[in-house]
From TrEMBL:
Gene field: gltX_1
Broad class of where this protein is predominantly found: cytoplasm
Keyword ATP-binding: yes
This protein's GO CC annotations: cytosol
Motif ('HIGH' region): 9-19
Source organism per UniProt: Botrimarina colliarenosi
First-level EC class: ligase
EC number: 6.1.1.17
Any Pfam family the entry gives: tRNA-synt_1c
Catalytic reactions of this protein: tRNA(Glu) + L-glutamate + ATP = L-glutamyl-tRNA(Glu) + AMP + diphosphate
Motif ('KMSKS' region): 262-266
Subunit composition and interactions: Monomer.
UniProt: ATP binding residues: K265
Protein name: Glutamate--tRNA ligase
InterPro entries the record matches: aa-tRNA-synth_I_cd-bd, aa-tRNA-synth_I_codon-bd_sub2, aa-tRNA-synth_I_CS, aa_tRNA-synth_I_cd-bd_sf, Glu-tRNA-ligase_bac/mito, Glu/Gln-tRNA-synth, Glu/Gln-tRNA-synth_Ib_cat-dom, GluQ/Sye
Amino acid sequence: MTVRTRFAPSPTGFLHIGGVRTALFNWLYARQHGGQFLLRVDDTDQQRNVEEALAPILHGFEWLGLDWDEGPVSSVAEGAGDKQSKGDFGPYFQSQRGEHYAAAVDQLLASGAAYRDYARPEEVQAEREAAEKAKESFVYSRQWRAETDADRARFEAEGREAVVRLLMPREGTLVLNDLVRGEVRFDWAREQDHVIQRADGSPIYHLATVVDDELMKISHVIRAEEHLSNTPRQVFIAEALGYTPPQFAHLPYVAEPGSKNKLSKRKLDKYLKNRDFAALNEKGQQIAARLGLETSAETFNPVIVDFYEQVGFLPEAILNYLLLLGWSLDDSREEFTVPEMIEHFSLGRVNKAPASFDPAKLLAFQDRAMQQVPAKQKTPRCLEMLKAAGLVSDPPACDTGPVVAGIVQAASDRLKVYGDILDYDDFFTADDQLAYDEKTWQKRMVKPDDAGPLLAKYREVLAKTPDASAEELEAGLKAFCESEGIGIGQIIHALRVATTGKGVGFGMFETLQLLGHERRLARIDHALARLSG
Ligand code: GLU
């Protein structure tokens, strides 16, 4: 059997990290078995602009490297297994596949597994309420079911419209062997005659999904737990159409930080009370603000994948973190490269219990992954960030490439996400436009009486060493302090705020070296001028 999996997003306008976890498990399972992974857009029910609502989802897939294997340009029969380069085909769209669903409805009507139902919505609702009042479970009376053409004519003469409902069994049990949850039993009596086609002829998700899973030869349906309760009706549809249902694996929720409830992008206010979540969100917001991004909580928050890309996380860190949200190899190993994920993943080791989203752990994964990226490889993405933030002026204030490389080197593990490069914005500012942190300026330059004179004196020493390395600059400053009979602390803070505008940063001498001779002198001159008013 060829393993074929699919991810079936609804075009909601954003990619939820729980959705990515589902997609990742599908993708890994297909890759591990040399099978295919498909992307299929559940857009039978969409009022909005699907293309627009899908764009962030496709973009997220691309960023994460989750590629799919076929799409509408290759029919299932010819295309299966023929890997084409991505871009040759888009995902499947259910909205473009109506003929298949209509044919399936006809088949279900013809076999008697479904019926046309002419009840008005309020009539069904009245039955439902009556059952509730009587404290009985609701069982539809089927009194507007059209069994014959004469029934149809009569109902239509009353101005009624038909939906198509499943004629569900009312006794017996469905035993489902779920690959994650094990044996799950469903009493048919608890199921309803679910609608599969609306009065306007459009198909309902359950029908479309079963038909597509069959036509696309999906072997394993790996999806969120919330669909477990939909499975009986889907199995009913599949069997009534003569299909062999796929194997099911229902994944536990990705839960909220510190609780077992499903993680939702609508409950941000609640999550922001969690310190780690708030810290992650804050970090993202700060970077986004520098990038001038639109940061409404609706579209930009740690529940949505886009957040991580914008802020400059590594896709491999996100994938590694999501892998462990509900799956483990053993109780200890946490680090997996993508090929290792493909090698080791198994549905059998997916937990049944929900796994809570843990922002601190995600940051730790990112931190570790970032430290493993060679400094040289970090430069291009940092440069992109700086450009996006408008920090690389034209002409640039410095020799940007080498300066970025130098900062990356010097910042080392302080660069936790690519957006952190923006903390070093002062390097890219023209020397006469440096913004000074006013509190630090007051404390380090204005308050100590000797800050100005010492800095002016040191400037003359510095002026004589144009080619000094960081080590030589350090030795030079130490010698200066000795000859002045001062501690290094008496000048170095003033020197930092004068040359960077800030109170913190990485090594002072690396900073001076990176600025270069002209710029460090110019900055000291500007600071001294500012000090003297
Ligand atoms: N569109 C559904 C969802 O996003 C897909 C469910 C399925 O995989 O069958 O939850």
